[in-house]
Amino acid sequence: MTRKYFGTDGIRGRANKFPITPDFAMKVGMAAGIAFRRGDHRHRVVIGKDTRLSGYMIESALQAGFTSVGVNVLLVGPMPTPAVALITRSMRADLGVMISASHNPFDDNGIKLFAPDGYKLSDEVESEIEALLDSDLGPKLAASAGLGRAKRIDDAQARYIEFAKRTVSRNLSLEGLRVVVDCANGAAYKVAPEALWELGAEVVAIGVEPNGININREVGSTAPSALIAKVRETRADIGIALDGDADRVIIVDEKGQIVDGDQLMAVVASSWAEEGRLSAPGLVSTVMSNLGFERYLASIGLTLERTPVGDRYVVERMRAQGYNVGGEPSGHIVLSDYATTGDGLVAALQLLAVVQKLGRPVSEICHRFEPLPQILKNVRYKSGRPLDDDKVRAAISDATARLGAQGRLVIRPSGTEPVIRVMAEGDDHDLVATVVDDVVDVITRAAA
Taking the CB of residue 263, how many other CB atoms lie within 10 A of it? Predict the structure, then answer.
């Protein structure tokens, strides 16, 4: 379904450039408030944000939009995306909003919407909101006496910390573990170190000094070098890197080696399978998960359901087919027993529970399979639809045939920027590299 404003993860763009402008954000608040009117009760929305400078601007604009259509606004300030989803349900709100561009640089921002149950909106609801955005909303504004109010929720962080701790056994103690946590100067800069400390860990925190413009800058899950260096410097047992809105996580073991989302899901799935906690014999991930991961799951009797890229599609498949573990190699890990969206802190706590249970180093616990050679390259384009070019289609067909049954080719346009991603994997590294280069070359010429 083609959408005009919504991408794979809400509305996103450069801050103070359309569509991330104050006037449009206000209209988003108006349209979303109207779309979620359910009866005559006083409606309410929870609004959270990460630490971007533009968050102040967007927060105020959304607040104006929602109150103008009679919706009360509950402000929770800088909070992880999964915390906003949690509090939306906890406060019995009619919808939730997270102001964030996730792992993008500070000068981007975005607006993510959650339904009353804490799940991201369906394509159909987003289309309904888009139709309202393109209409005259003036006649739908509230009467003077029906305007909404705004209130700040002061204990939101404590609520989320307590929730996170309850996702592991009450008897779990992290005492004896030295944990480095990198909060990307983002939304979890207070809650993640505090939760780990309350569970008994010796916490070394980095990326916890947000200034509005340093979110994700040389820190966080997309820039793990700082975490690797700190783990080695402090001889820590484990490193945990969150992204700007803390819905994804990357792990670094005691040797300074990166553990991606596939390995983390493998640990959780195998542990939960042994404990009888899997609601279905497998898990859900995307087309980007490594083929080695799929083979590992098969070896322990579990299946891998693949979806398009985007944690919302993972969650939709999980809900439709009854899975309670899912995620992406980028570190979005969805554990639906606890959360409605990816939660980096909760996923890390599940791993820490396994570490304490087994009493073995993270490097051993988190090396469940040998990843197959996988190469990903991006092709940037200015306009048009390069993938519709006949030569591009022929090149993709040829590349797929060359990889055969022992490999995979995934070609997809990004949902957040004008980029086409070309990924191939297989047992033969040289063949994979050649296939990717050939396809990238053809797409580049078509894009030009």
Answer: 24
